[in-house]
Amino acid sequence: MTLHDFTNAPSVLQRFVTELRNTETQQDRMRFRKNIERIGEILAYELSKTLEYDEETVATPLGKKTMQIQTDELVVCSILRAGLPLHQGVLNYFDAAENGFISAYRHHPNDDDDFEVIVKYWAAPSLEGKILVLCDPMLATGRTLENVLKAIEAYGKPKEIHIVSVIGSQDGISHVANTFPDETVLWIAAVDDNLNARGYIVPGLGDAGDLAYGEKM
Questions:
Q1: Secondary structure of the chain in the HEC alphabet?
Q2: What's this model's pTM, rounded to 2 decimal places?
Protein backbone atom coordinates (compact mmCIF):
# COMPACT_ATOMS: atom_id res chain seq x y z
CA MET A 1 0.00 0.00 0.00
CA THR A 2 1.14 3.53 -0.76
CA LEU A 3 0.61 6.03 2.06
CA HIS A 4 0.25 9.80 1.60
CA ASP A 5 0.26 11.22 5.15
CA PHE A 6 -0.29 14.99 5.46
CA THR A 7 0.06 15.13 9.27
CA ASN A 8 2.99 17.53 9.14
CA ALA A 9 2.34 19.14 5.76
CA PRO A 10 2.35 22.94 6.16
CA SER A 11 -0.91 24.00 4.52
CA VAL A 12 -4.42 25.26 5.27
CA LEU A 13 -5.35 21.60 5.78
CA GLN A 14 -3.93 21.88 9.31
CA ARG A 15 -6.46 24.55 10.25
CA PHE A 16 -9.38 22.41 9.16
CA VAL A 17 -8.08 19.40 11.12
CA THR A 18 -7.46 21.58 14.18
CA GLU A 19 -11.03 22.89 14.13
CA LEU A 20 -12.39 19.34 13.77
CA ARG A 21 -10.51 18.28 16.91
CA ASN A 22 -11.45 21.35 18.99
CA THR A 23 -14.33 20.58 21.39
CA GLU A 24 -15.57 24.17 21.20
CA THR A 25 -15.66 24.32 17.39
CA GLN A 26 -17.33 20.89 17.33
CA GLN A 27 -20.49 22.43 18.77
CA ASP A 28 -21.17 23.91 15.33
CA ARG A 29 -22.27 20.86 13.30
CA MET A 30 -22.45 22.78 10.05
CA ARG A 31 -18.84 23.95 10.42
CA PHE A 32 -17.78 20.42 11.41
CA ARG A 33 -19.30 19.00 8.22
CA LYS A 34 -17.86 21.81 6.12
CA ASN A 35 -14.34 21.22 7.43
CA ILE A 36 -14.56 17.52 6.56
CA GLU A 37 -15.80 18.52 3.10
CA ARG A 38 -12.86 20.92 2.68
CA ILE A 39 -10.41 18.18 3.65
CA GLY A 40 -12.06 15.94 1.07
CA GLU A 41 -11.44 18.61 -1.57
CA ILE A 42 -7.77 18.99 -0.67
CA LEU A 43 -7.13 15.25 -0.67
CA ALA A 44 -9.06 14.86 -3.94
CA TYR A 45 -6.80 17.46 -5.54
CA GLU A 46 -3.71 15.58 -4.36
CA LEU A 47 -5.20 12.30 -5.61
CA SER A 48 -5.94 13.84 -9.00
CA LYS A 49 -2.20 14.22 -9.67
CA THR A 50 -1.84 10.42 -9.82
CA LEU A 51 -4.57 9.70 -12.39
CA GLU A 52 -4.22 9.19 -16.12
CA TYR A 53 -4.73 12.10 -18.55
CA ASP A 54 -5.00 12.57 -22.28
CA GLU A 55 -4.83 15.59 -24.55
CA GLU A 56 -8.03 17.26 -25.68
CA THR A 57 -8.36 20.36 -27.85
CA VAL A 58 -10.88 22.94 -26.72
CA ALA A 59 -12.19 25.87 -28.74
CA THR A 60 -12.06 29.26 -27.02
CA PRO A 61 -13.62 32.50 -28.35
CA LEU A 62 -10.18 33.44 -29.76
CA GLY A 63 -8.72 30.13 -30.88
CA LYS A 64 -7.95 26.59 -29.80
CA LYS A 65 -5.95 25.16 -26.90
CA THR A 66 -4.79 21.62 -26.13
CA MET A 67 -5.44 20.64 -22.52
CA GLN A 68 -4.81 17.62 -20.29
CA ILE A 69 -8.10 15.91 -19.39
CA GLN A 70 -8.54 13.06 -16.89
CA THR A 71 -9.48 9.77 -18.57
CA ASP A 72 -9.89 7.39 -15.60
CA GLU A 73 -13.43 6.38 -14.63
CA LEU A 74 -14.03 7.00 -10.93
CA VAL A 75 -16.52 5.61 -8.45
CA VAL A 76 -16.64 7.61 -5.20
CA CYS A 77 -18.06 5.51 -2.37
CA SER A 78 -18.78 6.76 1.14
CA ILE A 79 -19.21 4.66 4.25
CA LEU A 80 -22.42 5.85 5.90
CA ARG A 81 -23.04 8.02 7.71
CA ALA A 82 -19.83 9.80 8.71
CA GLY A 83 -18.42 9.51 5.19
CA LEU A 84 -21.06 11.74 3.59
CA PRO A 85 -19.38 15.17 4.01
CA LEU A 86 -16.03 13.69 2.97
CA HIS A 87 -17.74 12.15 -0.06
CA GLN A 88 -19.14 15.56 -1.00
CA GLY A 89 -15.70 17.14 -0.81
CA VAL A 90 -14.24 14.53 -3.15
CA LEU A 91 -17.23 14.81 -5.46
CA ASN A 92 -16.79 18.59 -5.66
CA TYR A 93 -13.56 17.94 -7.57
CA PHE A 94 -14.56 14.75 -9.39
CA ASP A 95 -18.06 15.87 -10.35
CA ALA A 96 -18.34 13.42 -13.26
CA ALA A 97 -17.66 10.40 -11.03
CA GLU A 98 -20.16 7.64 -10.39
CA ASN A 99 -21.23 7.14 -6.79
CA GLY A 100 -21.63 4.35 -4.28
CA PHE A 101 -22.86 4.13 -0.71
CA ILE A 102 -22.34 1.44 1.90
CA SER A 103 -23.42 1.16 5.51
CA ALA A 104 -20.98 -0.30 8.02
CA TYR A 105 -21.20 0.09 11.76
CA ARG A 106 -19.80 -1.27 14.98
CA HIS A 107 -22.02 -3.60 16.99
CA HIS A 108 -21.17 -4.26 20.64
CA PRO A 109 -23.31 -7.37 21.40
CA ASN A 110 -22.28 -7.54 25.06
CA ASP A 111 -22.03 -3.78 25.61
CA ASP A 112 -18.32 -4.09 26.29
CA ASP A 113 -15.12 -3.31 24.39
CA ASP A 114 -15.53 -6.21 21.93
CA PHE A 115 -17.32 -5.39 18.70
CA GLU A 116 -18.10 -6.72 15.26
CA VAL A 117 -18.50 -4.67 12.08
CA ILE A 118 -21.83 -5.16 10.32
CA VAL A 119 -22.32 -4.24 6.66
CA LYS A 120 -25.99 -4.01 5.67
CA TYR A 121 -26.43 -1.80 2.62
CA TRP A 122 -24.52 -1.39 -0.65
CA ALA A 123 -25.56 0.59 -3.71
CA ALA A 124 -23.08 1.29 -6.51
CA PRO A 125 -22.38 0.70 -10.19
CA SER A 126 -19.94 -1.91 -11.48
CA LEU A 127 -16.41 -1.37 -10.19
CA GLU A 128 -14.72 -3.39 -12.93
CA GLY A 129 -11.64 -1.58 -14.26
CA LYS A 130 -12.51 1.69 -12.51
CA ILE A 131 -10.81 3.79 -9.84
CA LEU A 132 -12.60 3.19 -6.53
CA VAL A 133 -12.35 6.03 -4.00
CA LEU A 134 -13.49 4.94 -0.52
CA CYS A 135 -14.37 7.84 1.80
CA ASP A 136 -14.10 6.96 5.50
CA PRO A 137 -13.15 9.87 7.78
CA MET A 138 -11.97 7.81 10.78
CA LEU A 139 -9.56 4.94 10.13
CA ALA A 140 -9.41 3.47 13.64
CA THR A 141 -8.88 -0.32 13.69
CA GLY A 142 -9.24 -0.79 9.93
CA ARG A 143 -11.82 -3.55 10.44
CA THR A 144 -14.62 -1.51 8.89
CA LEU A 145 -12.68 -1.03 5.67
CA GLU A 146 -11.74 -4.73 5.67
CA ASN A 147 -15.42 -5.71 5.84
CA VAL A 148 -16.30 -3.18 3.15
CA LEU A 149 -13.64 -4.72 0.89
CA LYS A 150 -15.21 -8.16 1.36
CA ALA A 151 -18.70 -6.82 0.67
CA ILE A 152 -17.80 -5.22 -2.67
CA GLU A 153 -15.90 -8.16 -4.17
CA ALA A 154 -18.95 -9.27 -6.16
CA TYR A 155 -19.18 -5.92 -7.99
CA GLY A 156 -16.03 -6.23 -10.07
CA LYS A 157 -12.32 -5.69 -9.63
CA PRO A 158 -11.30 -2.02 -9.51
CA LYS A 159 -8.27 -0.86 -11.43
CA GLU A 160 -7.08 0.85 -8.25
CA ILE A 161 -8.44 1.52 -4.77
CA HIS A 162 -7.86 4.89 -3.12
CA ILE A 163 -8.89 5.44 0.51
CA VAL A 164 -9.53 9.01 1.66
CA SER A 165 -9.54 9.59 5.44
CA VAL A 166 -9.35 12.50 7.84
CA ILE A 167 -7.71 10.88 10.89
CA GLY A 168 -6.28 7.40 11.34
CA SER A 169 -4.30 5.34 13.81
CA GLN A 170 -1.04 3.58 13.16
CA ASP A 171 -2.73 0.25 13.95
CA GLY A 172 -5.55 0.93 11.50
CA ILE A 173 -3.16 1.86 8.72
CA SER A 174 -1.14 -1.30 9.30
CA HIS A 175 -4.31 -3.42 9.21
CA VAL A 176 -5.42 -1.90 5.91
CA ALA A 177 -1.95 -2.40 4.46
CA ASN A 178 -2.16 -6.09 5.38
CA THR A 179 -5.70 -6.71 4.06
CA PHE A 180 -6.05 -4.53 0.95
CA PRO A 181 -4.39 -5.13 -2.44
CA ASP A 182 -0.80 -3.93 -2.79
CA GLU A 183 -1.79 -1.20 -5.28
CA THR A 184 -4.11 0.47 -2.74
CA VAL A 185 -3.34 4.14 -1.99
CA LEU A 186 -4.24 5.85 1.30
CA TRP A 187 -4.67 9.63 1.47
CA ILE A 188 -4.95 10.81 5.06
CA ALA A 189 -4.92 14.26 6.66
CA ALA A 190 -3.56 13.21 10.08
CA VAL A 191 -2.29 10.11 11.86
CA ASP A 192 -2.46 9.56 15.64
CA ASP A 193 -0.48 6.95 17.55
CA ASN A 194 -3.01 5.30 19.83
CA LEU A 195 -6.36 3.53 20.15
CA ASN A 196 -8.28 3.23 23.42
CA ALA A 197 -9.79 0.00 24.78
CA ARG A 198 -12.92 0.40 22.64
CA GLY A 199 -10.94 0.91 19.45
CA TYR A 200 -11.35 4.69 19.13
CA ILE A 201 -8.52 6.95 17.99
CA VAL A 202 -6.73 8.94 20.73
CA PRO A 203 -6.63 11.94 20.73
CA GLY A 204 -8.70 11.75 17.51
CA LEU A 205 -11.79 13.92 17.53
CA GLY A 206 -14.60 11.75 18.89
CA ASP A 207 -17.46 10.16 16.93
CA ALA A 208 -17.45 11.87 13.51
CA GLY A 209 -20.95 10.67 12.63
CA ASP A 210 -22.48 12.00 15.85
CA LEU A 211 -20.63 15.31 15.55
CA ALA A 212 -21.73 15.77 11.95
CA TYR A 213 -25.37 14.66 12.24
CA GLY A 214 -26.32 14.29 15.91
CA GLU A 215 -26.24 11.41 18.34
CA LYS A 216 -27.86 8.12 17.36
CA MET A 217 -30.14 5.96 19.49
A1: CEEEECCCCCCCHHHHHHHHHCCCHHHCHHHHHHHHHHHHHHHHHHHHCCCCEEEEEEEECCEEEEEEEECCCEEEEEEECCCHHHHHHHHHHCCCCEEEEEEEEEECCCCCCCCEEEEEEEECCCCCCCEEEEECCEECCCHHHHHHHHHCHHHCCCCEEEEEEEEEEHHHHHHHHHHCCCCCEEEEEEEECEECCCCCEECCCCCHHHHHHCCCC
A2: 0.91
Mean pLDDT for the chain? 92
Domains of the chain with CATH codes: 2-51+71-213 (3.40.50.2020)
Residue 180 has pLDDT above 60, yes or no: yes
| Averaged pLDDT, 32-42 | 98
